[in-house]
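Chain A, query sequence.
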Amino acid sequence: MASRWRVLAMALRHRLLRMIGRPVDPFADTPSGLSLSPSARHFADYDRVALGLRFQALKPDDPQLWQRQARAKLAELSGYRREASVPYSVGEQRFALPDGLLRRRIYLRAREGVDIPVHLVQPENASGPLPVMLCLQGTNSGAHISWGEARYPADLEKGNGDYAIALQAAQRGYMAVAIEQSCFGERGERQIRPRSAAPCVDATMHALLLGRSLIGERCSDVSAVIDWLQAEATGLQIDPARIHAMGHSAGGSVALFAAALDERIAAVLACGCIGYIRDTIGRRRDDQGQNVIPGILNWLEMADILGLVAPRPLASVAGAADPIWPGEGARAVFAEAGEIYARLGATGRLQLQIEPGGHRFRPAKSWESLRIALDKDF
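Chain A, predicted structure.
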């Protein structure tokens, strides 16, 4: 058995080498030219995946029939489902916000084990019927950022208002509906002890055990909220035909996939979240699994997901230097999805802007992109 001092000396040497940028490889004597990393198997298979429903390969005569088939397959793979019953409220509170805005916090019971906090933000004296914007935050501390509230020190870094998307939507005439997504904010994991450090990984793994995905569950929640909005449309003074969705990063992914699965979403603004699956989440570190859908590459790529939104307006803004969702990747996906939009006579409803910089939400450009897609002023 190695002496305690030898173990300590080896650990110290490894730590010092890491500090100066020279990490130790205990297997430096491995012959070159071998495919030993787990990713090598996956990268090799990416070139041979079936993509059995890819629009670009099939060139279907009937794009709408393709949409029905692809949408059904996406729902199956992701574990997305619509509940038979409409959610009901199990509690409501009201809070005043600056600039004459009102926030209503409502807890919706969607099904056993699923209560969804939603926050309605609008002017106190608003009269309808109002269009609705479903506001979906990305990977951060919760929906409270949507109306500019800080509950954690890190929230103060977002205090410039760029991520206060519910306020932005309300100021543009929407009833903003900020949905607390599974794993964030009030819906963070509290039952498991101990929990994983990354907030979404436990839910991702447990969903997989049931044949579902986290993004499929989140999209199911979005549809449940839409069920409730439509059922309460008269009392809420909203226009159920004008329900839009928006988000950035992980929030943009949910907005996009929810619109692909639920045709009641009339328009979508999905930023900082678009690129080919094989080039993005398939080739980088992923300690969350938020967007992983088992088996999706046997059937669909990201351009097909965009194509499931057609002919409805779809807008996005990407950062040219975004290391997570690079702008050039978004451009390539939009170019491919453009064929589907063209086949459905909706070319002008697909809008992408690429801006300098990295992974962040750009309010002015994002709303401008949506305005162009909708062909209307805010």
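The chain has a mean pLDDT of 95. The domain at 67-374 is CATH 3.40.50.1820 (Rossmann fold).
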